[in-house]
Amino acid sequence: MARHALILVFVICVACFAEERSVYLVLMEGEPVAFHDPRKLELNSEISQAHAKRLLDSHDQLLQTTLEIGSYRKLYSFKHIVNGFAVHITPSQAEKLKGAPGVKMVERDRGAKLMTTYTPQFLGLPQGVWTQEGGDKNAGEGIVIGFVDTGINPLHPSFANDPLNPFTSNVSHFSGACETGPRFPPSSCNGKIVSARFFSAGAQAVATLTPMDFLSPVDAVGHGSHVASTAAGNAGVPVVTNGFYYGQASGMAPRARIAVYKAVYPTVGTMTDVVAAMDQAIMDGVDILTLSVGPDEPPEDTLTFLSVFDVFMLFAQRAGVFVVQAAGNNGPALSTVVSYSPWAVGVAACSTDRNFPGSLLFGNGQKVGGEGLSAPTFRGGLFLHKLVLAQDAVKANGTFPRSPQCIEECQCPESLDPNVVLGSIVICTFSAGFYNDTSTITSIINTARALGFKGFALVANPNYGDFIAEPVAFSVSGIMIPKVADAQIISHYYEQQIHRDKRGFVTDIRARAAIGEGRVAAFGGRAPLVSRFSSRGPDFIDINKNLADVLKPDILAPGHQIWAAWSPISALDPLLTGYNFALLSGTSMATPHVVGIAALIKQLNPLWTPSTISSALSTTATKYDNYGELVLAEGYDINSFYPSTHFDLGAGLVNPIHAIDPGLVFTSEFEDYISFLCSLPNINPTTIKIATGQQCNQPLSHPANLNLPSVTISALRGSLKVQRSVKNVGSKPETYLCSVISPNGTIVNLSPTWFAIAPQGTQNIDIQFRVTQARDVFSFGEIVLTGSLNHIVRIPLSILPVSVS
Predict the structure, then answer these.
(1) pLDDT tens digit string along 722-771?
(2) Where is the Subtilisin-like protease fibronectin type-III domain (predicted)?
């Protein structure tokens, strides 16, 4: 979900009846099309199409024989990677379906929410991976990335078919379709955009759609366009906003193709539409699936790993598709991740070393810093302008709104005296409206335009403390001052430069100020920093947050202040209406960075499986910043930082240069994930059979034995031995030395301590953990495998040692 000065959240709005109807997702027994035939026939073959029709007919027959005809509405049949359907029914009808023959699982739809010019350089792509792939003219060629999101802006230059370097050939393994509709003509699918579909049955079942909820793949929000261009937008696209040039934008894999699956609308988002889009994307043949959307909350009555959403991701992985999802924007609290499962990569967000410093300058030479992509007020020769507090510019008499939002926050132009504020820089104060999320920057800008402000400053209020501000492109000069300490400097200067009468009314204003240039980027400072909003681990297995032996998030990527494509419709954010680019923050923005890098890896290594790509990303990531020190994470307060742990950044910041040549990889396939599920504590094998259709024939001795590129043990008692298996994906034999940094309270021993491994060879490593001191919090360490050909493989350790014996 994107975060900037305003927060966008998509929630479900369910109409209430005598018995409230909801959308339910139903999983059925029987193999879906992708897995029903061991000969792995083409999904569009006659045999596969016949099987798909049988599944669809079985769904209809089940509903007709279980529920009264006319009392339900089937929304989708899922046939490709999961056998099931979505239906709009009452809770009592859902109970009937649970007992029907052939039904494995019934889950209520939990709703769905939405979780650059510089990041290619920050990650070293132009001089690194792009060079190996023939430059930005070829980086990502032949890879199709699927985006399940809010759609796409087909007119944006980031998605144009460049006549100087056209997309002339089809991608042989992909067969999508171009659905048309309002603002999405057939020409929208142009070779760069190879397919575009939309899914709205869930949305239409639970909400009354508005004119902005276009029933076509067009993006009325902007989020989907932002995500798609970050991953695969064309290279060298000029970023111009409010007439100012911010540089050139490029996606991580600028020659990758884009397949659009619109499933979230301005009015509503449902998981039903999301999983229907996922099912179709796998059927079409995408290589990578991008999920910057996710559930509103953990599942109520099943394991996090076994929600319908996570089961769909499991079967996407089984079909060979690399799945990347946003970790969530509920940080910095612990166990807030919404990416749970080991078969999908959950991405956390961080900053880069680029920022856009703004400033407010006073007549006495003082200056305070702030946020806002704003033109300066001193163009045209006049440097300083009158500075007036909004409360001192309220009309002297008459009928007008007198709420704090109007008088303090500048939300209501009818409350302020035009003669006082015209040509002035007006101090608007963060107050109750912003605190309760009912006031907007858009309203301040509208007031400034209506009354002729020279500029505005939204300053912190001591009654509410510091606030979080992200730079937004203002169409008038403006700045946000989020720190109370800076606001007090402003207040002190202002009070020294005005005169008040005995009643407290201002009689003379001599305060002068100017807003400095806020649009020019500055580079430097510590980076990356794990973003405050980025959701944290540890991972958990149920709604009660019982801990899981899986590391989440998996990896860190830039997600703070990312320039990328936008939709000028901007149905949910009037501040960005009319803009073709937006500077946004969120794990939604971090996710497509990993997606694009995965596309580059897949292009160079077309036979690598999803778990191989995931391992390559993880073991080569770095946990050190540009100062050579451990990456810091932002805390709750402004300017509060702490040394990050694996639960903040996963394995570390993605490192594409090393990820394309990781040396060793850890692989896990579908059967391994089933064995993992079957080894979970207190699990009933029937539960696994119901959700996945698979028997628990070979459970792991402990969940931590899943062959992940990390080890997480949520309750270590006494000692435990786990095993990892590595494969040499290099072209030469290599010898590795094994070393370990033991987490506090433990001793870790490795066997062997060194090994030689041939190309495509494998090696088992035994890892023995022993508790030396019980702790009530996790401690962290790592295993480092150092190769003779300079490969370095890092394996994060996250251990909670609960007892010595």
Answers:
(1) 999 999 999 999 999 999 999 999 999 999 999 999 999 999 999 999 99
(2) 705-799
